[in-house]
Design the sequence.
């Protein structure tokens, strides 16, 4: 029996998008720290500006170092292309701004990163784009919230901070039945744990800052274009299916087919909004992506140690992680995530807000900061930090209680991680 | 652009440059099995802005052209010749894989319609692995995976795409997956059952350009040699090292240059 022969995931994490530099032989991806690129001729320059030919013009639109990261992430996700951005939030905005117009509507999971919630609930309405938030565990809620002007379904593969597991296939079925694309934020899962495109998602976004980078030294984001959504059949996306005067009336689906979204997001979104990734940050993030498979396996392994510590601990009221049998999505997680459901977990410390505060202030190894997916173990109290702008009602809807502590389990020796958390938990009860 | 042939809607991309009021020569770009006009995205708009009316065609039942799919290379070449009749002038043909066989047959059998021909990923025969044919007939995604796997050279499996941010293999696979059910199987059968390639080559009297990948697993380089040997008209052969079957995607810059030079001089 013949089988397709593709480079495996771990190989592509190291190599996709790059060959040794032909002029210098440099094995590592060079940092092309340049704003702009010399044209061969007036005709070549005109061709680049007119999307007749491919290449680099100005690093706000594309850059060789950033392009390696983009192609690598597209490869790891199984997409047709990727566009990297200055941050994960810039990536979400790029997806929205490329596809939606004033008067359009989003149906989004209510259990999402606080920044994304604020963007959709407070900022986008200023531009005439509104959002209805629904329970990500109920595909029927997504269906009921869809209106004639809905243009996007959005959710996180693993919710924040309750780690709700999205049934990507079920929600994509709902989206596609309505002629809509499903965009998922896969920051917590990374392509190592799941390829959402294989399950029906159409657009993947990441805060590359997190596990993909893994080192906590560079901010970045990306959208990956799955290339399977039929924009023309949908008929709801004129930015892709109708002539664009910005490039002499090019129609992106007409000329670029499956890569229409990628091409428009770059040609308009990066060019006009300008939230590009710097080449230095792309270089740093590529160093992280190279070891993604090794790190994610260790993150998942260490997380199991932490769950074993917290399970039944005297100072712990409850645990939320899909690998724990008490989690409502435990069975779904086993089906969708055979390699594990990542390294973010939350738990409730006995004694509520005050005990939570004591816990946070008692950790010595874990760091109290506003990030996840670092190589180092991180802790935070979302109610007072990442999600503090949300009302009590919104917090309750998002499953964020006052006693909730979020942990991003790092790569330290698991005995040291567990020892630190155990001591801090004991301190919280004094 | 839409137009009508034999009462059926035909669609082609023109690089967003309309045909109205223009008398530039027409270049028709013909895609391969299970694909559509967008495989020429790196060439269509360029030709359209360099003195030609470019028409990257969707073959019947591909892309946005009305079906049904045509079942033989001879039928496809007759259909291509009708495009020349529709516009009332000779046309340049650029074909890839199944589209290359179609262009070859048209150039050998509809001489009055064709100004020049350029062939990418072509062989005197195009046998199809039975398991690929079986997967295509069953509309199994494995068919798209096999073509994507075999269609790109080793180097380009990892990418390094001149178009920033796009994945070559990802794009090819998504495109083939989008093909209407049953069409890929019809296309592959048309390729494998075609036996008139050398005869058509012998009949060609217009200039011909071969653009060939050294790592082409779908139509190995040596399979093109009987065609090259059979052609007595002006011929140009360009070999692309480290390149597979998807030459126009893997080496878009050089393909653009060679195509423009060929159609300009023909």
Sequence:
């Amino acid at each position: 029996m013949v089988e397709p022969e593709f480079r495996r995931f771990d190989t592509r994490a190291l190599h996709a998008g790059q060959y040794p530099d032909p002029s210098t032989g440099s094995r590592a991806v060079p940092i092309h720290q340049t704003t702009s690129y010399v044209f061969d001729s007036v005709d070549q320059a005109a061709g680049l500006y007119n999307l007749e030919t491919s290449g680099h013009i100005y690093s706000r639109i594309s850059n060789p170092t950033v392009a390696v990261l983009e192609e690598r992430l597209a490869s790891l996700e199984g997409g047709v292309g990727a566009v990297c951005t200055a941050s994960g939030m810039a990536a979400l905005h790029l997806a929205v701004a490329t596809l939606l117009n004033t008067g359009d509507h989003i149906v989004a999971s209510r259990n999402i990163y606080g920044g994304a919630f604020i963007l959709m609930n407070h900022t986008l309405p200023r531009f005439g784009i509104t959002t209805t938030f629904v329970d990500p565990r109920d595909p029927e809620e997504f269906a009921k919230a869809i209106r004639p002007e809905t243009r996007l379904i959005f959710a996180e593969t693993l919710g924040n901070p309750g780690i709700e597991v999205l049934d990507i296939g079920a929600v994509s079925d709902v989206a596609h039945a309505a002629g809509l694309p499903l965009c998922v934020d896969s920051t917590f899962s990374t392509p190592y744990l799941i390829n959402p495109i294989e399950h029906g998602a159409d657009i993947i976004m990441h805060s590359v800052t997190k596990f993909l980078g893994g080192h906590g030294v560079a901010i970045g984001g990306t959208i990956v274009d799955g290339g399977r959504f039929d924009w023309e059949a949908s008929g709801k996306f004129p930015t892709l299916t109708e002539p664009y005067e910005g490039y002499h009336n090019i129609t992106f689906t007409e000329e670029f087919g499956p890569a229409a979204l990628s091409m428009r997001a770059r040609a308009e979104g990066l060019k006009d909004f300008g939230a590009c990734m710097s080449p230095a940050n792309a270089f740093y993030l590529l160093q992280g992506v190279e070891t993604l498979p090794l790190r994610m396996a260790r993150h998942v392994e260490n997380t199991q140690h932490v769950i074993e510590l917290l399970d039944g601990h005297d100072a712990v009221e409850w645990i939320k992680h899909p690998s724990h049998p008490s989690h409502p999505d435990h069975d779904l997680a086993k089906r969708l995530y055979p390699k594990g459901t990542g390294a973010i977990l939350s738990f409730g410390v006995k004694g509520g807000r005050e005990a939570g505060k004591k816990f946070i202030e008692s950790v010595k190894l874990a760091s109290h900061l506003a990030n996840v997916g670092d190589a180092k173990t991180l802790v935070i109290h979302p109610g007072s930090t990442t999600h503090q702008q949300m009302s009590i009602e919104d917090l309750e809807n998002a499953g964020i209680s006052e006693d909730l502590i979020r942990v991003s389990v790092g790569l330290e020796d698991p005995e040291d991680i567990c020892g630190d958390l155990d001591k801090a938990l004991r301190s919280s009860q004094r | 652009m839409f137009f009508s042939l034999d009462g059926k809607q035909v669609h082609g991309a023109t690089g967003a440059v309309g045909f109205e009021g223009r008398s530039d020569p027409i270049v028709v770009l013909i895609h391969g099995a299970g694909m559509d006009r967008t495989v020429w995205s790196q060439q269509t708009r360029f030709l359209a802005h360099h003195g030609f009316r470019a028409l990257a065609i969707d073959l019947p039942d591909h892309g946005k052209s009305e079906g049904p799919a045509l079942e033989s290379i001879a039928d496809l070449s007759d259909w291509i010749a009708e495009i020349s009749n529709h516009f009332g002038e000779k046309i340049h043909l650029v074909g890839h894989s199944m589209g290359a066989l179609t262009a070859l047959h048209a150039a050998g059998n509809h001489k009055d319609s064709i100004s020049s021909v350029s062939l990418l990923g072509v062989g005197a025969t195009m046998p199809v692995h039975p398991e690929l044919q079986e997967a295509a007939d069953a509309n199994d995604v494995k068919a798209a995976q096999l073509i994507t796997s075999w269609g790109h050279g080793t180097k380009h499996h990892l990418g390094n795409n001149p178009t920033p941010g796009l994945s070559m293999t990802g794009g090819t696979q998504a495109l083939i997956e989008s093909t209407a059910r049953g069409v890929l199987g019809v296309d592959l059968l048309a390729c494998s059952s075609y036996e008139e390639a050398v005869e058509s080559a012998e009949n060609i009297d217009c200039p011909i350009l071969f653009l060939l990948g050294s790592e082409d697993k779908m139509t190995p380089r040596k399979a093109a040699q009987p065609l090259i040997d059979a052609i007595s008209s002006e011929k140009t052969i360009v070999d692309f090292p480290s390149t597979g079957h998807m030459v126009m995607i893997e080496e878009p810059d050089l393909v653009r240059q060679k195509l423009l030079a060929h159609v300009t001089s023909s």
Remarks:
- Chain B has a mean pLDDT of 96.
- The longest strand of chain B covers residues 114-120.
